[in-house]
Amino acid sequence: MNLFRLAGDMTHLASVLVLLLKIHTIKSCAGVSLKTQELYALVFATRYLDIFTDFISVYNTVMKLIFLGSSFSIVWYIRRHRIVRRSYDKDQDTFRHYFLVLPCLLLALLIHERFTFKEVMWTFSLYLEAVAILPQLVLLQRTKNIDNLTGQYVFLLGAYRSLYILNWIYRYFTEPHYVHWITWIAGLVQTLLYADFFYYYFESWKNNVKLQLPA
């Protein structure tokens, strides 16, 4: 494991902890898209089908369990927790996220490295993760009250994917035959979706003003 991969994993973990901190401590999910969280739960459920069959390392297994458990916990909090669910803005979080699932599945069936169930599901998870943030970004554009924790959560998610791209570049030049173009393209698309958010996030930080995205 190289430094970029480790930094990416820790940034991803930090994003989850920030969101759980907000939901569990403040008992609020205001500004958080349930649609995005449901997509991420599906991403991890389909990506980690090998968790009990293919052992890589203790670190790898622990991280998989953390992301699986945290994603489904967040969905449960927003849907079922008697206090947290009251702060969910259902009227604003209206992105039809299920329209993203079928195209990603069809694309995975058509474009993959090996035609096996696990491989197709893993490829599907890559495509879906690339666009899973869209409902969250749309919700942030609609709301005028983006709190610091929600902004930090989205920023850390984008930073995690950016660090993973650096990890792939590093491995390309240091490992022979390291070519995973499906992963690279999906990761690049995902990072580009964050570009607009990054700009306004840094502008708000530089000018010490509240984060707002243009409608």
Automatic annotation (TrEMBL):
Question: Which PROSITE patterns does UniProt cross-reference here?
Answer: ER_LUMEN_RECEPTOR_1 (PS00951), ER_LUMEN_RECEPTOR_2 (PS00952)
**Membrane-crossing residue ranges in chain numbering:** 55-78, 98-115, 121-140, 152-170, 182-202
Q: What is this protein called?
A: ER lumen protein-retaining receptor
- How is this protein positioned relative to the membrane? Multi-pass membrane protein
Membership in a protein family: Belongs to the ERD2 family.
Q: Which domain of life is it from?
A: Eukaryota
From the UniProt record, give one GO term of the biological process aspect.
Answer: protein retention in ER lumen
Task: Name the gene behind this protein.
Answer: ERD2
Q: Does the record bear Ribosomal protein in its keywords? A: no
What GO molecular function terms would the record report?
ER retention sequence binding
- Location of the protein in the cell: Endoplasmic reticulum membrane
Q: What is the lineage of its organism?
A: Eukaryota, Viridiplantae, Streptophyta, Embryophyta, Tracheophyta
